[in-house]
Amino acid sequence: MKTLVAPSVLACDFARLGEEVAAVTRAGADWIHCDVMDGHFVDNISFGSAFVEAVSRNTDRPLDVHLMITNPDRYLDRYLPVAHSVDIHLEADADVPETLRRIRAAGKKAGLAINPHTPVASIDPYLGQFDLLLVMTVEPGFGGQPFMEDMLPKIRAAAEWREKHRLDFRITVDGGINVQTARRCREAGAEVMVAGTSVFRAKDRAAEIAALR
Ligand code: DX5
Ligand code: ZN
Questions:
Q1: How far apart are CA 53 and CA 70, in angstroms?
Q2: Boundaries of domain holding 125
Q3: What total number of domains does the chain contain?
Q4: In terms of pTM, does the model score above 0.85?
Q5: What number does the ligand 1 atom closest to the CA of 147 have?
């Protein structure tokens, strides 16, 4: 599986959203990652579906919508029309299998996201029901935090699990990803690199994306 780079618009200049999304698209982004936060599931409010829809009008790349919200069941339908993939949290107050099923039924990729303190074994009941496993490599809620080194064994365990069960989900890493940490995540078995700060703050975004890949 090839490495994909998904810049997170959480780190862009919201006053120039359209230009920022177009710029990372030109710079070679594979996917665009949108972090939706509700102030309940995480201690921050970012943006909602109108914003994600505005992102979609400025890129031809697939949108990966990361729902850090308590009630994904309730708001899912607002994101499905513009999403390529939707990641819901295993820790959310949701009927996880049913929500994953609804994402797939809409013809989209279903992502299961897990927080740093959620053990990898907790994905076991959902094996076969998701296309992406998003391993949080920081506590969710804010960009610009340092990568948690102790998530590397978890990525390795997830990759071994995938092999053992002959599944083909992709492993996404999210939080503190830069050229150094991306390399280690890739070696551990991750393929999708979500990167906010490292891409949007780079002097040369195309070079940064190429280096991450
Ligand atoms: C954190 C979000 C991340 C965030 C990553 O809760 O899920 O996607 O934007 O930002 P950086 O790359 O700055 O750590
Ligand atoms: Zn995210």
A1: 21
A2: 4-212
A3: 1
A4: yes
A5: 14
